[in-house]
């Protein structure tokens, strides 16, 4: 079969044998895919940094007739060199969390070039921003819901409550998963928050922690088989 070349964003890795990795990626052309990267830990070829979480790589592989079968990467190299994403302690913690969350929610059959570009461009902006980036993961998670099909309906944004289950603002307690007025105000503020090179942080540490819990619960309600990321606790400790 013809060799396929595509860009891919690394979501997770698992050691395979003594020197290899199973690499799970979100590819630009084919959606979610897993590959075997041979010789990653060999003495002659130590290339683990290529497979850092959310790193963008150029890969080439020859597919098999059985699309579910793992295939070996023919080649892999860094497609974009981040300056701070994997080296700044706060940024790297956020990256690990987002990689774990994306790994939980993205499905094998999904191919969405707009989603790929959203992830890529968001990470480039995050990397470029030198300070006031503590709200990034909150804005990212909110905007990601556009692509996942459960972006909040803000037609009745003046209402005092937000219904997490049905995804809209409400004047009445319409489900068991309602935000109270204080939580709703924070949620509204996040809905209207943008993240670029000039923006300042909009939330304090306590508010970030609360919003993160709200967003994780929102994802949990609207995503099948979703479980809380293990790295969530690290972020809570980081921003507490």
In words, what does this structure look like?
- The chain is of the alpha+beta class and 240 residues long.
- It has helices spanning 89-105, 113-128, 136-148, 181-191, 205-222, 232-238, and strands at residues 4-16, 20-27, 31-37, 56-61, 71-78, 161-163, 168-170, 178-179.
- A five-stranded mixed beta barrel has the order 1-2-3-5-4. A three-stranded antiparallel beta sheet has the order 7-6-8.
- It is globular.
Shape: globular
Task: Give the overall pLDDT as a whole number.
Answer: 92
The CATH architecture designation of the largest domain is: Up-down Bundle
What is the number of beta strands? 8
Helical content class: 25-40%
Which radius of gyration do the C-alpha atoms yield? 19 Å
In short:
The longest helix has 18 residues. With 240 residues, this protein is α+β, with helices and mostly antiparallel strands. The strands form 2 sheets. A 5-stranded mixed barrel has the order 1-2-3-5-4. A 3-stranded antiparallel β-sheet has the order 7-6-8.
List the keywords.
240 residues; alpha+beta; OB fold (Dihydrolipoamide Acetyltransferase, E2P); de novo design (two linked rop proteins); 2 domains; 3-stranded antiparallel sheet; 6 helices; 21% strand; ARFGAP/RecO; DNA recombination; DNA damage; NA-bd_OB-fold; RecO
Topology (elements, then pairings):
Layout: E1 4-16, E2 20-27, E3 31-37, E4 56-61, E5 71-78, H1 89-105, H2 113-128, H3 136-148, E6 161-163, E7 168-170, E8 178-179, H4 181-191, H5 205-222, H6 232-238
Parallel strand pairs: 3-5
Antiparallel strand pairs: 1-2, 1-4, 2-3, 4-5, 6-7, 6-8
Helix pairs in contact: 1-6, 2-3, 3-5, 4-5
